[in-house]
Design goal:
By secondary structure, this protein is mainly alpha-helical. Helices cover 85% and strands 0% of the residues. The two termini are 42 Å apart. Residues 1-5, 199-204 and 407-422 have low confidence and may be disordered.
């Protein structure tokens, strides 16, 4: 009786440690959501050109690229709670510096600090779930976790655009900083501190296990998820969060309307993440990610060929649903591939791949925007998503073949063990 089984699973998930980390990540994504629809508008109001906007925005990816794996390693060594709380503190510092910026160049430092805060919260929360939730319920727990993320991101843009339009962009960043401080206090009080014990077979544990990192970098599921993350990040950070608000303003759509569009997108994305948790363990990850990227390519293309607020809202709602599917599927696959001892590092590698796509993609898109115009940006992103969809589909096939070969080897080894003399 599947419905009863499903209800039983979700009853098991109604526990303090999971609900608390979901609440913290809800707060964290409110903070990120506050700045998402207004950052490009704020930067251009300070005098940034389209090319400079791409460069300044890429600092977020550069910071994530440099800090993703170290944050994962610190999480594996000191426990996720420490990193999560530190990430919320970094959000507060970052947003204070945003509010004080007098020129576009002054946005780079807070952008990098925000990047470190992001890799210290969102992927670390996945590692926290891996530590406290049994494997049978982990995919469903990640679905709830990512739904909490999406719900926070639905609230944040409304706060950011409302405060930004009524009191100015610096005031919006100040509001985000206050929310971040509240999140840090909540995390320090409520989260369960679980410092991993050192391995029993060694007296000391190296901070960086190069052999384990090399194995993770070659794992088929992680490689596939990383390629998909690069493409999705280029689309998300480039087309959706950086250049869409500029495009929307250029066709006469107001700041509050832009924030509302982002809120609807986030709500749609969050709604689909809860049921996607259990499904992610049944659907082939490669085909799911390839399909999402294919749809993403179409959305990126059509986004720049309409000026209707309703059509743009529908496109971003569809994009949000696709992103929710991508987020649950990819992170569940990476978390499972990482194992208990190196789950934080595995998720860090996944985020580092997205950061690499963000840095390279935004610099490239900045050049495209400056030389070919705003519309060309969306075409370039659509082409990237389409090509990546084909690559991910191919990698998915290779990953399935690899897993089947490993299964045959394990079965053969088991049969050999039964035949061996006692």
């Amino acid at each position: 009786m599947p419905p009863v089984v499903g209800l039983s699973m979700y009853r098991r998930l109604m526990r303090r440690d999971l609900l608390d980390v979901c609440a913290l990540i809800f707060i964290a994504d409110i903070v990120v959501g506050v700045q998402s629809p207004i950052f490009s508008l704020y930067a251009t109001s300070l005098g940034a050109s389209l090319g400079v906007l791409g460069l300044v925005t890429s600092a977020l990816g550069l910071g994530r690229l440099a800090s993703a794996v170290p944050a994962g390693l610190v999480s594996d060594r000191m426990g996720p709670k420490t990193v999560l709380v530190a990430g919320m503190v970094l959000y507060a510092i970052s947003f204070a510096l945003y509010a004080l910026a007098p020129a576009p160049g002054w946005l780079i430092v807070p952008r990098i600090l925000q990047a470190i805060a992001m890799v210290s919260t969102f992927p670390t929360g996945i590692a926290y779930i891996g530590d406290v939730i049994e494997e049978r319920d982990r995919a469903a727990a990640i679905g709830l976790y990512t739904a909490a993320m999406g719900s926070g991101f639905a609230v944040g843009p409304l706060i950011g655009t409302w405060v930004g339009s009524t009191a100015g962009y610096p005031a919006a960043y100040a509001a985000g900083g206050v929310i971040a401080i509240a999140g840090a206090v909540f995390g320090a009080v409520r989260l369960v501190g679980k410092k991993p014990a050192p391995p029993a077979d060694s007296k000391s544990r190296r901070f960086v296990d190069r052999t384990s990192l090399a194995l993770l970098l070659r794992h088929p599921a992680i490689v596939m998820a990383c390629i998909a993350n690069i493409a999705m990040t280029v689309s998300q950070t480039g087309a959706v969060f950086t250049y869409f608000p500029v495009y929307a303003r250029s066709v006469g759509i107001g700041t509050l309307t832009i924030g509302t569009i982002f809120a609807w997108r986030a709500l749609a994305s969050a709604t689909g993440r809860v049921p996607m948790g259990p499904l992610s363990g049944r659907l082939p990850a490669g085909w799911t990610l390839a399909a999402v990227l294919l749809v993403e390519a179409g959305i990126d293309f059509f986004m720049a060929h309409t000026t209707s607020p309703l059509t743009l809202t529908l496109l971003l709602v569809l994009e949000g649903i696709g992103f929710g599917i991508f987020l649950v599927t990819s992170q569940a696959a990476v978390s499972a591939a990482g194992g208990a001892a190196s789950r934080g590092a595995a998720v860090g590698i996944f985020w580092m791949a997205g950061a690499a796509g963000e840095v390279i993609g935004l610099v490239f898109l900045g050049v495209v925007a400056q030389s070919l115009g705003l519309i060309a940006v969306f075409g370039a992103v659509a082409a990237t998503s389409l090509l990546s969809s084909l690559v991910v589909a191919g990698l998915g096939l290779l990953a399935r073949q690899d897993s089947r070969q490993h299964a045959r080897v394990e079965v053969a080894a088991g049969d050999h063990g039964h035949d061996a003399p006692q």
